[in-house]
């Protein structure tokens, strides 16, 4: 048979005459490597219509699933689910704005814009993108560090408005920065980091985050400004606020337990958060409360403050990683349950663009609402030791350093187990 670069000559009688060059092993390997390199370069730099279509559909997943949408089968369920999820997202946005120390209306911006972006660029069909308490706490920590409270306690309304504006700009800038980091990581194909996020790590981290959330809300329940004052000035607690908070917590807890216990008999879960907000809103409307501010429309997008960006680079990286870690963990659970693929790199791009747009409209960092009991373990074979390490590190070292410590510990256990 003819060889490489060989030439077959016409047969003479019953014989074939084959002429081909003689290769040594080294020359053959060099020739083969050059041929493979040219093939790879041709594949990388070629732009066929099929390749262009594949790249476009990968970057805009909505163009893939929207034409295949089963309108008659899914539209009613999507409308009902969208209304319920939207109401909860609005309530959570208003509540989590307190964690960020910005006016409540900016929580609505954080609940609105990232959803629109994820609709176009996201790959998961079931996750709800919006404010998340862990990220709200992390952004709030940056806000409190760069724009601390007025220590005199006698600031005028003008000063308070100026402080609020500064805090909003800090929250928006660090959100924008975290979105840029997520976008860059997605473009550079860093989505593989999700394999190091096990169920134990996520569980311990979110439990520690819940502790941070509870502690951060004590000042609103007791009307005491700092954690230290809770112990030193506990006798000055505002009893009315404390009783109201405890009643609301009890009612919400009981109704949520009822929803879980009787979910098979209830046509739809009781929206207790919405009912509580509605009742309290009606109560406040009957009182003579002065309206501090009222906005009838969205504000124009603004550019981030360059001076703030320089001061919170590390915070932006932490927020970017934590937001993606939690968001992708939830997305992966639903992708496995309903058997459809998701792309970790595209999820990074979607979350990044969502935070860039949200930060531009003066919102704060967003991710996915977390269902701790449903997070799928991605690395396998981990023990409860990682849960304990993650929990303790995140509680005592902070959410960003705690997550880094827990991941380092988990990587160490993976190395040790692989060597045994």
From TrEMBL:
It comes from the Eukaryota. The keyword Transmembrane helix applies. Pfam families: Sulfate_transp. Keywords: Membrane, Transmembrane, Transmembrane helix. The keyword Transmembrane helix applies. The chain crosses the membrane at residues 79-100, 106-123, 168-195, 201-222, 234-255, 385-416. GO terms for cellular component: membrane. GO terms for biological process: transmembrane transport. It is found in: Membrane. Residues 76-395 form the SLC26A/SulP transporter domain. Its main location: membrane. It is a multi-pass membrane protein. InterPro entries: SLC26A/SulP_dom, SLC26A/SulP_fam. This is Solute carrier family 26 member 3. It comes from Strigops habroptila (Kakapo). The gene is SLC26A3.
């Amino acid at each position: 048979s003819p060889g490489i670069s060989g030439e077959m000559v016409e047969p003479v009688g019953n014989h074939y005459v084959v002429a081909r060059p003689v290769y040594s092993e080294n020359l053959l390997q060099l020739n083969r490597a050059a041929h493979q390199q040219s093939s790879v370069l041709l594949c990388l730099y070629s732009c066929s219509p099929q390749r262009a279509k594949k790249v476009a559909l990968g970057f805009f997943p909505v163009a893939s699933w929207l034409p295949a949408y089963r309108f008659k089968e899914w539209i009613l369920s999507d409308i009902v689910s969208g209304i319920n999820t939207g109401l909860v997202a609005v309530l959570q946005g208003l509540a989590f704005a307190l964690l960020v120390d910005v006016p409540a209306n900016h929580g609505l911006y954080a609940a609105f814009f990232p959803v629109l972006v994820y609709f176009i660029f996201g790959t998961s069909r079931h996750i709800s993108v919006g404010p998340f308490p862990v990220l709200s706490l992390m952004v709030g920590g940056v806000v409190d560090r760069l724009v601390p409270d007025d220590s005199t306690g006698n600031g005028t309304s003008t000063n308070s408005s100026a402080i609020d504006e500064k805090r909003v700009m800090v929250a928006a800038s660090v959100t924008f920065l975290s979105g840029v980091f997520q976008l860059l990581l997605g473009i550079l194909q860093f989505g593989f980091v999700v394999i190091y996020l096990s169920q134990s790590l996520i569980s311990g981290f979110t439990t520690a985050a819940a502790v941070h959330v509870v502690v951060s809300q004590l000042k609103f329940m007791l009307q005491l400004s700092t954690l230290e004052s809770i112990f030193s000035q506990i006798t000055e607690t505002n009893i009315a606020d404390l009783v109201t908070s405890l009643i609301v917590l009890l009612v919400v807890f009981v109704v949520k337990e009822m929803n879980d216990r009787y979910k098979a008999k209830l046509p739809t879960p009781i929206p207790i958060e919405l009912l509580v907000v509605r009742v309290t809103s009606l109560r406040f409307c009957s009182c003579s409360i002065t309206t501090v501010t009222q906005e009838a429309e969205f504000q124009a997008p603004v550019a981030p403050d360059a001076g703030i960006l320089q001061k919170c680079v590390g915070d932006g990286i932490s927020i970017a990683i934590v937001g993606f870690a939690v968001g992708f963990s939830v997305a992966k659970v639903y992708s496995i349950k309903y058997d459809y693929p998701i792309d970790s790199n595209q999820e990074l791009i979607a979350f990044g663009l969502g935070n860039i747009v949200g930060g531009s409209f003066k919102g704060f960092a967003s991710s996915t609402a977390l269902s701790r009991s449903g997070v799928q373990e991605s690395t396998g074979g981990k023990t409860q030791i990682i849960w304990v390490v993650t929990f303790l590190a995140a509680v005592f070292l902070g959410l960003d350093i705690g997550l880094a410590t827990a991941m380092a510990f988990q990587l160490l256990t993976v190395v040790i187990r692989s060597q045994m």
